Amino acid sequence: VQLQASGGGLVQAGGSLRLSCAASVNIYTFDAMGWYRQAPGGQRELVASITRAGSTIVVDSVKGRFTISRDNAKNTVYLQMNSLKPEDTGVYYCRARDNVPYIYWGMGTLVTVSS
Fold first, then answer.
1. What does the pLDDT look like over 76-85, one tens digit per residue?
2. Short-list 85, 66, 82, 65, CA closest to 13
3. What is the pLDDT of residues 7-42, one digit of tens each?
């Protein structure tokens, strides 16, 4: 299983980015997929997740600004990030969990928000 994250970059505060996580397998394989981020000097933390059934969790710090979604036909999960803030800066990782459970991580994509 491979998870390919993309879409990061440098953006000014208030701007938007959309991250994509493309899986090498059918994403129905996974009970849930999610996005985590690791700020400089910080720990990796959950940002948002989505289950096979489409239920979502978005953490309070990004609620109302970030949206997680999935395209089953493309085996891809997205993170739409709007109204970005400098504190959203970090490396964003895609994660998937199957029913074993086994956890898969993708390589991170860097998001830098300038003030």
1. 999 999 999 9
2. 85
3. 999 999 999 999 999 999 999 999 999 999 999 999
